[in-house]
């Protein structure tokens, strides 16, 4: 797997991102905990030295020769054990230098601590880092005090010091650091395992989706089936809708192809039989050929119209104003049927009413309905349109003979004509029905209040944007 494929992997991205933040969090947490513990140990260490120094100050006094003595020994037994790492020392200050002969803890044995001159005022404490016995390095706290307890004697200044080996502070910090980093490493390992499991479990729906897609691709399933989380469910639903639309397109295409082949089969058979008969009259043959070619042409146009409407019905954002289309068609049918002096009355059609679809499809549907109404009307045809909910309803009434209830559904079928004496191919109402269904609408025939037939065309409405 190359770097490009790794960058394109959602699993790798999630794992790398999680590992980075786990490592960063562990490092920051370790540094913070180590610093806090070191500060705590150092504070405790200094507090213990200060406690020794306070005890030393409280027990310090001078004898008749102004020599320093302790009223009571300090309570910490480590100060009595030689080179234990805990020490104290008292120096007499004379002329800015330590006097010969100092008082010190038994733990120092015969070693004398050398301290730098004090830099603080009398009574204040200061911390220094000095060399101790046997190569030890000591943290020390020192304080200068002045005693004037002997009458007639000048006050005497002493420097008091309490010290301890650095290792008593450094070793706990190092030991805690080792244990802490080991614990953090175990924690990091657990977090990494948890992250890997989380990524594996979290991406399980995508693996299920991949298997479902494989079944669709291999033809074992027609849609994506299975239980998917709510975050993926909208994607699955949209994809299933696309699959359903594609299946519908394929089915419709096969149906169109079969219907067209069946429709062309009859005129082609007629032409083939006529061509095989000897002694045919040329004029009669020419008339037959023209008639059958016209039938074939109408069938081809019918199926092309359905195919174009099926494609247009899937386009979003298309909108056609109804009033201009109706006005244009009314003018056309009035000219076509001018010799009959029909009154084509335009009723309530608001200017803002719009059809959510292509203009040529609306013209095809309304044109066929108006033409059919004018063929059967005696004196009058009424056209009305209104919006009902999210739909558009167009009503066309005529005062002709009408149709019996049993015939109203039959005439919507392809090739069926109500009266063979009236010119037509029987495709007009079938085209209207097919186009309306492609747009999710419908066409219905019923008795008209005018006495003839009422055609109700229901289509999706397009709403005007309010500015």
Describe the structure.
The chain is α+β, with helices and mostly antiparallel strands and 467 residues long. Among the domains are: 109 residues, no CATH class; 62 residues; 144 residues, Heat Shock Protein 90 (2-Layer Sandwich), CATH 3.30.565. 49% of the residues lie in helices and 18% in strands. The strands form 4 sheets. Strands 3, 4, 5, 6, 7 and 8 form a 6-stranded antiparallel sheet that branches. A 5-stranded mixed sheet has the order 10-12-13-15-14. The protein has a two-stranded antiparallel sheet with strand order 1-2. The longest helix has 50 residues. The protein is rod-shaped, with a radius of gyration of 53 Å. It starts with a helix and ends in a 7-residue tail after the last strand.
CATH architectural grouping of one domain: 2-Layer Sandwich
Radius of gyration: 53 Å
* Percent strand: 15-25%
**Largest sheet data:** 6 strands, antiparallel
Structural class call reads: alpha+beta
Number of strand segments: 15
Report how far apart the termini are. 55 Å
Q: What is the arithmetic mean of pLDDT?
A: 79
Q: Which CATH first-tier class of one domain would you pick? A: Alpha Beta
Number of DSSP helical runs: 10
Unreliable stretches covering 5 or more consecutive residues: 96-100, 415-426
The run of helices and strands is HHEEEEEEEEHHHHEHEEHEEHHEE
Which fold name is given in CATH as the topology of one domain? Answer: Heat Shock Protein 90
The percentage helix is 40-55%
CATH H-tier superfamily of one domain: Histidine kinase-like ATPase, C-terminal domain
Globally, the shape reads rod-shaped
